[in-house]
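Lay summary. Proteins are chains of building blocks that fold into shapes, and those shapes determine what they do. In this project we predict the shape from the chain. Here is one chain we studied, written as its sequence of building blocks.
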Amino acid sequence: MGAPAERGGTVDLLVEAFRLGKPGAFDAIVRAHQDRVHAFCARMLSDPEEALDMSQDVFLSAYRNLGSFRGEASLSTWLLRIAANRCLNRIRQRKSAAGREAPWPEAGEDGDGTGFQPAAPEAHGPDRVAENRELGEILSNALARLDAGTRWMVLLSDVEGFSYEEIADLAEVPVGTVKSRLHRARMALRRLLMPAV
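And here is the predicted shape, written in a compact code that computers can read:
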């Protein structure tokens, strides 16, 4: 599922403008996608600072390779594929260096952190804010317990709204494999979240 701008062809025009050497074209691409790429990296890496570095790395790679972008998938899909591959490589490096993945960081007292923040309903009372923060922390901790190879599929499917076909293309596996992995991951999340609900 691409960003609305992509459906209208805006991104195609930006890619073409970049290829033609138009000033500011790549900056416009970064502005259009930086929040989404950073959020994805933060959820994958469980570390907002490392996610910022990784996001920059993703866009540096995109800058170097945008000339070979064929447009078979949307630009956001292509960027998230780069992000997923980079994040998975980083997690593998962490595991080999430390023998385990770093824990998911807790949200600070001021609410900062990489946890999910469910959208607050119209009533923004303190009880509702505290409840949403707690729910976000519970969900973040449950996601962190999934293996990284499955977590990114869950994030792409359930957070980013990618189709099974898009994820299968990214993972270079059959659609049936994506469905079965997501089903197992969702069942594991259900078990992890059951005590909290």
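What the prediction tells us: Confidence is low (pLDDT under 50) at residues 1-10, 100-123.
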